[in-house]
Amino acid sequence: MFHWVVGAIGPWNLPFWLSFTKVLPALLAGNTVVLKPAVFTPLTILRAADYIREILPPGVLNVISGRDDLGPWMTSHPDFQKVSFTGSSETGRKVFASAAATLKHLTLELGGNDPGIVLPDADPQTIAEELFRSMFALSGQGCVTLKRLFVHESIYQALTEALVSCARHQKLGDGFDPETTLGPIQNRPQFSCLQTTWEEIQEANAPILYQGEVPSEGTGLFFPVTLLDNPPAEAAYVIRENFGPLRAVIKYRDLDEAVRLANGTPYGLGASVWGTDPASLDAVARRLDAGTVWINQHLNVHPRVPFSGHKNSGIGIEFGEDGLKEFCNLQVIANRR
User: Residue 1's pLDDT is what?
Assistant: First the structure.
């Protein structure tokens, strides 16, 4: 049997989970793995690998950490036959280009700007908390969190009032405080990106539906929970992926226009549709250009269900049997007797 040396490159926002969703199927398929954690989160992976290596033969799982030049070295190295990467679409393009010289097999799980469409028959009070959770999980630092919410004009006021009520009950602060519900931005470069986007929003005089407060004591890269009130759906600060607690709530009248705008970004990772009529929900879901489309939910991922992105959100599949096959080298033996 022909197995690979797999290069696995994980992100900083969910370092353990999104690293070992690469490692485990690679090992199950009989490969050896070299795992590189993100520059900002090496310690979690190094400690976990210490435990796992105790039950594996030497050399099966290896962890290397270093600066930004380590990833390009891995993706261009001829001894890696497969690379699995999770991160931004911008970095994913660089991985793709670097791996092209040796025609490596690739799995790329990249950025997202997930839309959600709320149909006019939805009950705002029923869905508000789940919507808020889907938007602000990980303090908004998730590729598959809901980032653009399109709400029919007939229920826009009721739903936005319910979302603001949810926002008012959040506490931004120290993660060791049991009352904290949202934490800081993970690293300074990402915090700077959010600040630049916020300056752009202010220059555009975009209306703000709600903005929370940052902690008055202590230090940290805190960005307040922010909901934009019906900004232009095609504004640059809406189209780009905002990796933090900054979200746009957009009013629509015509469903076809809402679907067009929802699909109108380079991303296609996840999407969702919310309402009560099963036929309408299914019809809209099938029109959304995303690898996963949820109905009356968002952000729910199961290890047995394939997960992939459309457009600039990725190449290949993770999870499920299809994800396992991504780490297998198919061979056909045709014997003529």
Answer: 57
